[in-house]
Design a protein that fits this description.
2 copies of one chain form a homodimer.
Chain A: E1 5-10, H1 15-27, E2 32-36, H2 45-51, H3 56-60, E3 62-64, H4 67-70, E4 76-80, E5 91-92, H5 94-106, E6 112-116, H6 125-128, E7 133-135, H7 148-178, H8 191-207, H9 219-230, H10 234-252
Parallel strand pairs in A: 1-2, 1-6, 2-3, 4-6, 4-7, 5-7
Helix pairs in contact in A: 1-2, 1-7, 5-7, 8-10
Main location (chains A, B): cytoplasm
Keywords (chains A, B): Cytoplasm, Methyltransferase, S-adenosyl-L-methionine, Transferase, tRNA processing
Region (Disordered) (chains A, B): 169-191
Chain lengths: 261, 261
């Protein structure tokens, strides 16, 4: 699915932003970058530095002069847009867009363009009207201008999340089998082990004079609630019981403990 | 809800990244920025340029030398982490973290720290062990290092999405009003209180001969994981500290404890 997504940047001014976009894309598993009429260098020190290891996307990027050329083979074209346009267009949130992708990609030859506009002025109305739908990232109304790489990051992240969900549900029952059970010591302690611990704990608290079984107040109930909420692992319960054993030993040792340094 | 979120950056090297983080935060409606031991300038031409109008966050940012100081009043501390750690910790995706926020914020005085590490090396194990949970952004396994501002962007975006959903459902019904915040003693303990407890615990375990700070193995890390997972309430932490005090008293009491019946 992710290999069917193309990120299209129109009229980008700052090469550093192109590099930042490449990094954001590759981090999320998107590798198809297209540039329309960039307003400066594409590959320079700044873009390579910001790409931070994803500069192969810059070298592979297709550069064209028009949006039409860049998305000619695309079956769905979605343009990033600020909310209000004079002419209302189908508007998706990044999450709604991502939710549509598995279905979109079922079609053979499906290719989806995610189109982002200029740093200063976004997409023109003409460009927006070439899109099937618009995607709007919900931002602070008082400060809505996202950095270009940040906008790509959010949309690419949602696409990746949808892909991961699809992978998980595809794997279906096989997935469950594939998932290794946690190591034995990381497994949750059994009820019986926990009860043994609580008995040991109550005895120890009585020994150190903190608990009076004749006047229990809610002490053990509160401690049970705390420890049960934590769902102790076996290894953790072993440690807790080791502490109780050491406490009993230190307190009942006739010779007394070694003096503290 | 968003005003209860604090973004904490530890040991940031590049002022431009701090500016980029400020922009990402303010775009998503998060305004509380804290910096721990920044490794360079905070306010300079680069950071102001990248903040792109959100530089008031830089001026308001609290700077401290330690993570403990930066999150002392926080009731939930979440650290950004790469997936695999030797000691598995409660791990959330950004979406799972965001889904927890409305409930977390119901408590009076709730404050949530989102902690991000160094550009080159992330958070240390010690820093990660001070967190209740870790948040992992699912990235391309072959190219997993996100730009700092991009990582903040994704987490802040999910927080904003959860907030928008909450606003929408609040508008639908006044259901939320009916739910009372928990009583004071049922409120969650703060980071500072928890750290005091862990120090007290470590001292006590050393006193009873269960722990050797020279050979720590993973003892304190495992105990931290257990207790942080349980999200102790104030009253529970009081009980746990009472147990430690009673243990110390019983052990160091020269006369020895009364014989057990």
């Amino acid at each position: 699915m992710l290999e069917r997504l193309r990120t299209v940047l129109i009229g980008t001014s700052h090469s550093g932003n192109i590099g930042g976009v490449a990094r954001a894309m590759h981090n999320m598993g998107l590798d198809d970058l297209a540039l329309v009429a960039p307003r400066g260098e594409v590959i320079d020190q700044e873009s390579i530095s910001r790409a931070s290891g994803a500069d192969h996307l810059l070298h592979q990027a297709r550069v064209s002069q028009t949006l039409d050329e860049a998305v000619a083979d695309c079956t769905l074209v979605v343009g990033a847009s600020a909310r209000s346009r004079t002419l209302p267009w189908p508007m998706l949130s990044p999450r709604e867009l991502a939710a549509r992708l598995p279905d979109e990609c079922r079609q053979e030859g499906a290719r989806i363009a995610l189109v982002f506009g200029r740093e200063d002025s976004g997409l023109t109305n003409d460009e927006l009207h070439r899109c099937h739908a618009h995607v709007h990232i919900p931002t602070n109304a008082d400060f809505s201008s996202l950095n270009l790489a940040a906008a790509v990051q959010v949309v690419a992240y949602e696409c990746r999340m949808a892909w991961l969900e699809q992978q998980a549900s595809k794997a279906g029952s096989d997935h469950q089998k594939a998932e290794k059970p946690p190591a034995s010591e990381e497994q949750r302690a059994s009820h019986a082990d926990l009860e043994r611990y609580f008995a040991h704990l109550e005895q120890t608290l009585t020994t150190i004079g903190f608990h009076d079984p004749q006047k229990p107040r809610q002490l053990m109930a509160r401690l049970r609630r705390l420890y049960l909420r934590a769902r102790p692992r076996r290894i953790e319960l072993n440690i807790l019981r080791g502490i109780l054993t050491a406490t009993n030993k230190a307190v009942t040792d006739k010779a007394g403990p070694p003096p503290r340094p």
